[in-house]
Design brief:
The chain is mostly helical and 306 residues long. It has two domains: 110 residues, HAD superfamily/HAD-like (Rossmann fold); 188 residues, no CATH class. It is built from 14 helices and five strands. The strands form two sheets. Strands 3-4-5 form a three-stranded parallel β-sheet. A two-stranded parallel ribbon has the order 1-2. Strand 4, helix 6 and strand 5 form a beta-alpha-beta unit. It comes from Cryptomonas curvata. This is P-type ATPase C-terminal domain-containing protein.
Amino acid sequence: DAAAGKAAGQDRALLIAGGSLAQLQEKDPDSLLRLCGVCGVVICARCAPIQKSGVVRFIADRLGVVTLAVGDGGNDVPMIQSAHVGIGIMGNEGTQAAQSADYAVGEFRLLRRLVAVHGRYCLLRITTLIKLVLYKNVMFCIPQILFNAYTLFSSSSIYNSWIILGFNAIFTDGPMLVLAVFEKDIVPELITRYPQAYDIAEAKESLSLGSIAAWQLLSAWQGCMIVIVAANLYGRDGSGEDGRDRSLDVLGMLVAEVAVTTVLFTAALCTRHWTVVNHVLQWGCLLAFYVALLLLDSLFCPEPGE
């Protein structure tokens, strides 16, 4: 019934003048909200600048929604600044609206592409970046937490300090940053033809509690598995199957190797639009890590007798 009512409301429009709008807002705001709720379009005509901004704040406060305001003149500046997202159009009325807005476009026809295409891509990129950044840092910290518990919280670090320094700065940030700049899932022409794709992306890529919890559970599970595998390969008594001593650095490098490789391949699996920059940073970071690993191995883990 709610869906049918919403669909029916798309065929209705409300046109209200500034004077009537002010009276309804003052005397019966609930009726105004109900009236707006059953209409697909609400047009407020002959409104003063303060009324325009008042409508935006009224909708945002009473409905708790994110608002977007579009204007092309100086009298639209208060409205643009009152909205969560303000878009100014540079036209015959000057550039005041564009200068006070979050985004500016040269013509009204570009608004569709700005919101539907670039807005959708921005949603996709930011949510994916946030999830991956949280995921990789939790997964990298889990082995350290378990190692501290195993060593009775001796404050020893399982990782070499150079690996800790390079994990976020060099080895894993490149693919995620380029993903946040170039990521796409469908072509722009398809989005402009079917604006409903924005709603689909918003529902799929939202930073809901369940979505974040799923990523954190994945990172915690992978972190635990890394420790279990590394501990079995390393040996509980600090020596391998051949009886030779294994230093703490060997264990730390083994854990770091699996962790960094897992993070990079997870980022690769999340990438849907591959460019030359993606390939260079994705495989370049992996190569840089293994080069650094070889250097650290020669410095901190010499062979017996050396």
